[in-house]
Amino acid sequence: MERRIRSWRALQGPDRDVIFRQVHEPGRMGLSDFTDMADLGVRIAGVELDHRLYHFRLACSGFEHAHVILGGESYVALAEGLQNALWALGGAPREHRSDSLSAAFRNLDASARDDLTHRYDALCRHYRMEPSRNNRGVAHENGAIESAHGHLKAAVRDALLMRGSADFGELAEYRRFIDEIVARKNARSAKRIDAERAVLQSLPGMRTSDYEEVLVMVTSSGGFTLRKVFYTVPSRLIGHRLRVRLYDDRLELFLGGTPLFTLPRGRADRKGKHDHVVDYRHVIHALRRKPMALLNLVYRDQLFPREAYRRMFDRLIERLADRMACRTMVELLSLAHERACEAELAGVLESLLATPQGMPDMAALRARFAPDPAALPEVIVELVPLSAYEALLAPRAEEMA
Q1: Who's near 293: CB < 8 A, 6+ residues apart?
Q2: Which helix (H) or strand (E) segment is 118 a member of?
């Protein structure tokens, strides 16, 4: 039956779509797209990394650039990845092709979609590139990069097998790993890339913005909420309005025009549950005054800087009264902050947790991590005699007389 239907379609069936292969002119087209990397099982410090790769490719020479993206297919991710690719390449093509940023548009209202389109068009104008988009759902129109996705993922998978592990100590290490793979792929096409680089447009004098800017108010909770994520900041900023530059992997905070600091970007999970990005140093002074607040704190698990602290708190709760357990845990966090010994103290707690009866002795820990008296500078303060002030006032008294 299937063979007969197939034969009938060949003789009497409707016309089918035809793919027209193109001649790629040097310096004309660069393409951008995203590819999901979740199936490779990459882990950062033992935690599976849910991520994508932003992938840029020149249609003619095959130059490639890849950038690890922690969130979705957003304008920020596109702008950062595209600009990184162009500056690594040293020039810009005359046309930039994307897939309509379908994932970024999906949940936006009409005004937000228009704003995103304007920002993308402005990005292309900055580099004098003509923006173009393939028809929605017609992937083969981006075939010059869609097929390259598979080759890149295969290269990453092979490199992970050769490495013997998909576990990386930190995100920067994984990003270097991806850069090395892409660099090896580009090295095989070095002559074609150099030939096309010669006909690319020159880059502008500087990059354009690759972030979203948002204003937030720091509440009495010691932080602010942005995109369903609560971030802590130093309590002295309570009541102030901050300007936030929102990147794919970080937030840069400003008070007026004064830069403050950078925070890692958090994300709500796919079910909409809120996330917390917490630095215990921001709230430890307040917790020392209210240690019982730790017991049912909304972001308690995110407060602990290392796993050893969380496990030690679980042991304290099991063996001590709630008040004493919270007070002891707050003192441990305070010690880690004041003596700058977070990692060393975590090692001590690990050794205590390895023994069934191990419990922290705060007096011994304070003595252990106390500053070395021999390393402290000797400060001598010479007090000025009060008669010196009378000498300063004497000329003034004569003038008044």
Answers
A1: 286, 287, 326
A2: helix 110-126
Beta strands in 178-239 (DSSP E): 212-217, 223-226, 229-232
Our CA angle for 165, 170, 174, nearest 5°, is 60
Q: How far apart are CA 214 and CA 332, in angstroms?
A: 36
Q: Name the DSSP letter for residue 201.
A: B
> How would CATH label the architecture of 29-197?
2-Layer Sandwich (3.30)
Domain boundaries, the chain: 29-197, 211-277, 279-385
Q: Which residues lie closer than 8 Å to 141 by C-beta, 6 or more apart?
A: 134, 135
CB 84 within 8 A of CB 66: no
Q: Token match 């369903």: residue?
A: 228
Over the stretch 20-47, which tens digit does the pLDDT of each residue have? 666 678 899 999 989 889 889 999 988 8
C-alpha span between 12 and 14 (Å, rounded): 7
pTM, entire model = 0.74
